[in-house]
Amino acid sequence: MAHCLIRSRRQRWRLKGTTSYDVGSRPHPDLALVAIGALMLVIRHKALQNTLPRNGFAGLRTKASKHCEACWQAMHRTAAPWLLAGAVQALVGAATTGMLYLVAADRAEYAAGVIASVAFVVSGILLLIGGFLGNRAASAVSEHV
Questions:
Q1: How do residues 27-53 score in pLDDT, each as one tens digit?
Q2: Under 8 Å CB-to-CB from 59, ≥6 apart: which residues?
Q3: For 56, which of 2, 23, 24, 90 is 20 to 30 Å away at the CA?
Q4: Lowest model confidence (mean pLDDT) among 21-25, 63-67, 132-136
Q5: Phi first, then psi: what are they for 135, rounded to 5°?
Q6: Are 111 and 96 contacting, i.e. CB atoms less than 8 angstroms apart?
Q7: Which residues of 8-30 are buried (b: 16+ CB within 10 A; e: fewer)?
Q8: Separation between Cα atoms, residue 97 and residue 14, nearest integer Å
Q9: Distance, CA of 80 to CA of 137 (rounded, Å)
Q10: Backbone angle region of 118, left / alpha / beta, with phi > 0 → left and psi within -120 to 50 → alpha
Q11: pLDDT tens, position by position, 58-111
């Protein structure tokens, strides 16, 4: 009998805890934003150190950037400031969304979703700008090679 009472108390405690930050019940755009921001920072760092080899996985890949190693490096060096801006935007959006979930869990779901959506869109736009400018730089290098 005592086991049932303890078990029911735990269940009630768990039910009360679901009004705060329940990891299993909500989608977490803040975690996706952290992953995107971290990936952009890693690519930017490797590009500035000239240690990002041409590959099919990480980096900005266009026809111009795949032409040669110099084009690849030129594209990523040109896009590096935009990658930093996109990463900062994603991480600030993740922090804001995460804090909203922690502070006002049930009351702020809509606002957190809007903030996360805006952060995704702005980070994507900054990445596209960097890719466009980097592609122009890679095209200019490929004409001279």
A1: 677 788 899 999 999 989 988 888 878
A2: 43, 47, 52, 65, 72, 76
A3: 90
A4: 21-25
A5: -65, -40
A6: no
A7: eeeeeeeeeeeeeeeeeeeebbb
A8: 24
A9: 12
A10: alpha
A11: 778 888 877 888 888 888 888 889 999 999 999 999 888 888 877 776 677 778
- Taking residue 123's Cβ as centre, other Cβ atoms within 10 Å add up to 24
| Contact by Cβ (8 Å): 115, 100 | yes
Contacts of 112 by beta carbon, 8 Å cutoff, 6+ apart = 29, 30, 96, 97, 100, 101
For residues 70-80, one letter each, b for 16 or more C-beta atoms within 10 angstroms of the residue's C-beta and e for the rest, the string is: ebbbbbbbbbb
Which amino acid belongs to residue 22?
A: D
Per the CB < 8 A criterion, the answer to whether 84 and 48 are in contact is no
What CA–CA distance (Å, rounded) separates 2 from 5? Answer: 5
Which 8-state DSSP code applies to residue 145?
A: -
> What is the residue type of 88?
V
CA 135 to chain centre: 22
Closest CA to 48 of 38, 40, 57: 40
